[in-house]
Specification:
This protein is α+β, with helices and mostly antiparallel strands and 363 residues long. It has eleven helices and 16 strands. Helices cover 32% and strands 24% of the residues. A seven-stranded mixed β-sheet has the order 3-2-1-4-5-9-8, with helices on both faces. Strands 10-13-12-14-15-16-11 form a seven-stranded antiparallel β-sheet. Bound molecules: S-adenosylmethionine. The site of S-adenosylmethionine has 21 residues, from loops.
Length: 363
């Protein structure tokens, strides 16, 4: 469907792209060597991912915030920046420094595609022939971490070598994938929006995939509020990001980056086990609207409910996800987790404590 010619590295020395030797599993450091980087730059002269990016443009609105993983020399990053707000990244400081010399203003991150150690979030994460350098386990970790960096309705766009071998060439790992295997890897986490083979060197030697995170929690809630006609409002990305940041500052231990009940500052929380915790919350002395959100990897949505009673009503009809409740000033935080613990922080510390005493008194 797009111009294959643009993707062909004809006449180039392809030794760094074409896997040759089957070895163990050590790919570290190859692109930390300036000579290797220079060789790679020469080899891919005349090549860019323009045709792939053209496909992406059909799915991602202009000006979207995009993160490129493994940018290498940055040819794709140049093109991506013509339509999106692109941030480049690579695990190799050498590539980052080289691009920085030519583009002092560029938004660049030194980033391992596996750990993705950043607080930034994006509408899309893109890579072109990068993730095949990871082991299959590392790819799983990377995809899981990518869900953390993706904004609501965010997309992934990644290209892979097509096949079913695993090889090492000059200390670099090459893991080939068949479409079915990749589908199985992303199953349950992402929905495949589009997957198509293309020619990089030989016919059908590569494929790209566009993935969209499946938001089971938000889908379930939105479906149920329609059924029981409970009015809720979805907060926009900017507003929910601000609330999340406020909550993080107040209640999450500074050494953690995610709002998760395991990361709360322990002295600030009161908790007890009660499988009806989700129901008990409607007895708390707070009658104003509340904001409901979730573990970041599960859902980036934030909903405003009219009151705690409506929260219980909807939760009672849906399945057991972990949720957090706060208000605009984040002066309380309530969590009901998978282990049936009701956790209160800020003003909710006392409410949860009282609910616990009440439960003990009635037992
Ligand atoms: C084959 S090059 C592709 C570069 C660029 N995407 C292109 O199309 O020319 C692979 C790139 O992935 C980077 N890379 C390898 N492992 C990585 C990792 N774990 N995290 C981030 N980047 C990585 C390398 O430093 C290199 O820049």
């Amino acid at each position: 469907m797009y111009n294959e010619g643009k993707l062909t590295k004809e006449g180039k020395n392809l030794k760094y792209l074409v896997p040759l030797i089957t070895l163990g599993s050590n790919t570290m450091g190859y692109f930390d060597d300036e000579k290797n980087v220079q060789d790679y730059i020469e080899m891919v002269d005349g090549y860019d991912g323009a045709a792939l990016i053209k496909v992406l443009q059909d799915y991602l609105p202009d000006e979207s915030a995009l993160l490129e993983l493994g940018m290498g020399p940055g040819k794709d990053l140049d093109i991506l920046n013509q339509c999106f707000k692109a941030t480049g990244s690579d695990i190799s400081q050498v590539f980052i420094n080289l691009y920085r010399e030519k583009h002092p203003e560029a938004d660049l991150l030194l980033l391992d595609a596996v750990t993705l150690d950043t607080d930034r979030t994006f509408n899309c994460i893109y890579s072109n022939k990068v993730l095949h350098h990871l082991t299959k386990d590392e790819l799983q970790h990377s995809l899981c971490n990518q869900t953390r960096l993706l904004r609501k309705n965010g997309l992934l766009f990644h290209s892979f070598w097509h096949g079913d071998k695993e090889e090492m060439n000059h200390g670099l790992r090459f893991v080939y994938y068949l479409e079915e295997e990749l589908k199985a890897i992303v199953d349950g986490l992402f929905e495949v929006v589009k997957m198509e083979r293309y020619k990089e060197i030989e016919e059908d030697d590569s494929f790209y995939v566009i993935l969209k995170k499946i938001d089971y929690v938000a889908n379930e809630i939105l479906e149920e509020v329609k059924n029981i006609q409970c009015p809720i409002e979805e907060l926009d990305g900017q507003k929910s990001e601000k609330i999340r940041n406020d909550v993080k500052k107040k209640y999450v231990h500074p050494s953690y980056r995610e709002i998760h009940w395991e990361n709360f500052v322990q002295d600030l929380e009161y908790s007890f086990k009660d499988e009806n915790g989700w129901y008990v919350i409607q007895n708390f002395p707070y009658t104003k609207p509340v904001l409901m959100f979730f573990n970041e990897r599960e859902s980036k949505f934030m909903f405003r409910f009219n009151n705690l009673r409506d929260v219980s009503k909807v939760y009672g009809e849906t399945f057991g996800y972990e949720f957090y409740l706060t208000n605009e000033d984040s002066d309380f935080l309530i969590c009901f987790n998978h282990h049936d613990y009701l956790i209160g922080l800020g003003k909710a510390y006392e409410w949860v404590q009282k609910a616990h005493l009440k439960k003990l008194g009635t037992n």
